[in-house]
Specification:
The chain is α/β, with parallel strands linked by helices. It is 31% helix and 24% strand. It contains 6 helices and 7 strands, in the order H-E-H-E-H-E-E-H-E-H-E-E-H. Strands 2-3-1-4-7-6-5 form a 7-stranded mixed β-sheet. It comes from Musa troglodytarum. InterPro entries: Semialdhyde_DH_dimer_dom. Pfam families: Semialdhyde_dhC. Residues 5-185 form the Semialdehyde dehydrogenase dimerisation domain. This is Aspartate-semialdehyde dehydrogenase.
Length: 199
């Protein structure tokens, strides 16, 4: 949702994504286990580990998807393949690291983008402010940026920390931070919004 409007403007040639995925991505049982473990740990008890096979409360770990022979897990490869499919660009370079974090609902992503054409952060911010389904939360002065709590139970994704990538010359790169409630902004809502456009 956040990278696509920027891609349309300046063509992403490489994207590096680190995801921070909430319990809700693994279903209601995972959410319940996180809540149960939180109570158990705070009470000084051994946490019950059924869904993730390790302590989730007050911890984070590599996404629980199966690890493939190339070292990426299935979730990371899904992100690579889906990005190329959505953008209809099999040449875009994408790499991902997916992490499970002890957040009840809504995923977050740190995204580094490298562009074919220069794109400065002010132009990127204007593009994102005008993008459908995107809310910009980028208040440097008060250090307020997107959080899972900001987007829980909301359809829009939030984007912030919009800044030039200092490691790339000539405004060829940006860093952004994105949060979205994957339960609300996922396959079901996408299908409804596509159907509405077709009708």
């Amino acid at each position: 949702m956040a990278a696509t409007p920027l891609h349309r403007h300046a063509k992403v040639v490489r994207m590096v994504v680190s995801t921070y995925q909430a319990a809700s991505g693994a279903g209601a049982a995972a959410m319940e286990e996180l809540l149960q473990q939180t109570h158990e740990v705070l009470d000084g008890k051994q946490p019950t580990c059924k869904i993730f096979k390790q302590q989730y409360a007050f911890n984070l770990f590599s996404h629980n998807a199966a690890v493939l022979s190339n070292g990426y897990n299935e979730e990371e490869m899904k992100l690579v393949k889906e990005t190329r499919k959505i953008w209809n660009d099999m040449d875009v370079k994408v790499t991902a690291t997916c992490i499970r974090v002890p957040v009840m609902r809504a995923h977050a992503e740190s995204v580094n983008l490298q562009f074919e054409k220069p794109l400065d952060e002010d132009t990127a911010r204007r593009i994102l402010e005008g993008a459908a389904g995107v809310t910009v939360i980028d208040d440097r002065e008060s250090n307020h940026f997107p959080t899972p709590l900001d987007v829980s139970n909301k359809d829009d994704v939030a984007v912030g920390r919009i800044r030039q990538d200092l490691s790339q010359d000539g405004n060829q790169g940006l860093d952004i931070f994105v949060c979205g409630d994957q339960i609300r902004k996922g396959a079901a809502l996408n299908a409804i919004q596509i159907a509405e456009k077709l009708l």
